[in-house]
């Protein structure tokens, strides 16, 4: 008996020790996860420097190019961690994609967009904000681009850490502007371009939010609030998918394929209209078959929007990779050219190895650090389902096309996050409208206290204020940081 009690005590002690070990193992895994990400990132940055040494070769400027390549890789990692969340967040928040599926799709399509269609907007990033001839010497120009790259990367890194989706485009623009002012004074800056960018702070999110709210109103009024939801969905979902196909076709023709073929706005719209009509006709029998046997409730409608939402997220990632890779490699390409030829006023050619650093850096950044911002955009601002997330994705593409037509520089971050806010605020307005309507019929049962009404708000105001504040200070913060870094680099070099 005593032996059995001793064995039981021994087993209990062993269980406790194993439980402690298991807890310790879980804690170690949790603590080490960020360190693993940082370690892999460091290896990637060092590989980018090795690639620069291999492809650029060894001469007097090779050390500068290696450092610039490392900074470009660091910036690309930050773009992946912060910017890509805007495309994948709504689909993940709506449960149309798992986090792993979203990351896999984004990695493939971001890289494809960067390598196949990226590079055209690099010239604007490197040359459109400051006048290169005002820099005086190639050395000054190189230090200015280096400072811009470093400051933008540090600012986006900080924004990701605090959980604020900011515009990486505006971060680079602010960095280039700050370095240009530090190097050559206020006259070096193209203030017409800068004023257009400042205007886009307001135009991008408001336009994105308004378009997303408009489509959500269309879905609610034509499908959700109908007595026979499935019959309404059979009629309207093919139309909505056709609109999505047409918009994305025009978007990719206009923005994503500039490196391969130049397409003007009227031609892009005609391509979009033709593909949109074709997809609309094709989707009618598909949606009819897919909707057979579905119950007449909102949950059934989510099934019909799932696949279009995943496709839209993939297409947005391709277009994002094509356009925003410039934020990582624009200043780097300018540094490579100035170091190689001594010329910094001519058109910039982008070496393939530079584009590869940008493409893979964005993918690694998303894979290692992207989930935090994906969760923020997808679920912490307002609750999304496939219909609402679909409106966000569609709004992002339409807004870019409208802005291109009007000649306005816009931020994909501001558009996507603005669209999420637009959906949330429309839901609040719609809920308030329905409460008022119900109050007329049942005044006693719908008379909520002010505290209860505040609790029922569908958009988190704390996130709203944090994000707006981060947007407002992005350009000046990156500019000030860049100016300080430029003076430090110039002092060390001098």
From TrEMBL:
GO terms for cellular component: membrane. It is found in: Membrane. The keyword Transport applies. Coiled coil: none annotated. GO terms for molecular function: phosphate transmembrane transporter activity. One of its GO terms (biological process) is phosphate ion transmembrane transport. Its main location: membrane. Keywords: Membrane, Phosphate transport, Transmembrane, Transmembrane helix, Transport. It is a multi-pass membrane protein. Pfam families: PHO4 (PF01384). Belongs to the inorganic phosphate transporter (PiT) (TC 2.A.20) family. This is Phosphate transporter. It comes from Sulfitobacter aestuariivivens.
């Amino acid at each position: 008996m005593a032996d059995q009690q001793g064995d039981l005590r021994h087993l209990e002690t062993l269980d406790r020790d194993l439980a402690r070990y298991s807890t310790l193992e879980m804690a170690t895994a949790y603590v080490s996860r960020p360190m693993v990400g940082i370690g892999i990132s460091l290896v990637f940055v060092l590989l980018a420097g090795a690639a620069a040494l291999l492809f650029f070769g060894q001469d007097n400027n090779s050390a500068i190019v290696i450092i610039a390549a490392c900074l470009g890789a660091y910036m690309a990692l930050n773009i992946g961690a912060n910017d890509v969340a805007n495309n994948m967040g709504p689909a993940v928040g709506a449960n149309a994609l798992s986090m792993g599926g979203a990351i896999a799709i984004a990695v493939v399509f971001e890289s494809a967009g960067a390598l196949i269609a990226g590079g055209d907007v690099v010239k604007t990033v490197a040359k459109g904000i400051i006048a290169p001839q005002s820099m005086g010497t190639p050395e000054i120009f190189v230090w200015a681009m280096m400072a811009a790259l470093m400051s933008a990367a540090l600012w986006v890194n900080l924004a990701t850490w605090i959980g604020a989706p900011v515009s990486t485009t505006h971060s680079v623009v602010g960095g280039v502007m700050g370095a240009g002012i530090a190097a050559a004074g206020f006259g070096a800056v193209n203030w017409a371009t800068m004023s257009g960018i400042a205007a886009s702070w307001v135009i991008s999110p408001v336009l994105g939010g308004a378009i997303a709210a408009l489509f959500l109103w269309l879905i609610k009024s034509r499908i959700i609030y109908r007595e026979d939801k499935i019959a309404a969905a059979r009629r309207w979902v093919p139309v909505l998918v056709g609109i999505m196909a047409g918009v994305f076709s025009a978007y990719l023709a206009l923005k994503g394929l500039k490196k391969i073929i130049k397409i003007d706005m009227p031609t892009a719209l005609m391509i979009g209209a033709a593909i949109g009509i074709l997809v609309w006709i094709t989707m009618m029998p598909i949606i009819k078959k897919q909707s057979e046997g579905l119950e007449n409730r909102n949950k059934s409608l989510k099934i019909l929007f799932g696949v279009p939402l995943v496709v839209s997220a993939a297409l947005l990632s391709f277009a994002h990779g094509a356009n925003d890779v410039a934020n990582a490699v624009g200043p780097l390409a300018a540094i490579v050219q100035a170091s190689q030829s001594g010329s910094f006023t001519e058109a910039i050619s982008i070496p393939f190895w530079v584009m590869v650093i940008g493409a893979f850096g964005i993918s690694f950044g998303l894979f290692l650090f992207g989930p935090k911002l994906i969760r923020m955009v997808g679920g912490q601002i307002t609750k999304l389902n496939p219909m609402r997330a679909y409106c966000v994705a569609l709004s992002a593409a339409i807004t870019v096309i409208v802005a291109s037509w009007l000649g306005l520089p816009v931020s994909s971050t501001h558009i996507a996050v603005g669209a999420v806010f637009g959906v949330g605020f429309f839901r609040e307005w719609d809920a308030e409208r329905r409460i008022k309507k119900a109050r007329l019929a049942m005044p006693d049962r719908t008379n909520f206290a002010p505290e209860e009404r505040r609790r029922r708000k569908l958009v988190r105001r704390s996130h709203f204020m944090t994000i707006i504040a981060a947007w407002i200070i992005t350009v000046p913060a990156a500019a000030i940081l860049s100016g300080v870094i430029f003076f430090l680099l110039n002092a060390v070099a001098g």
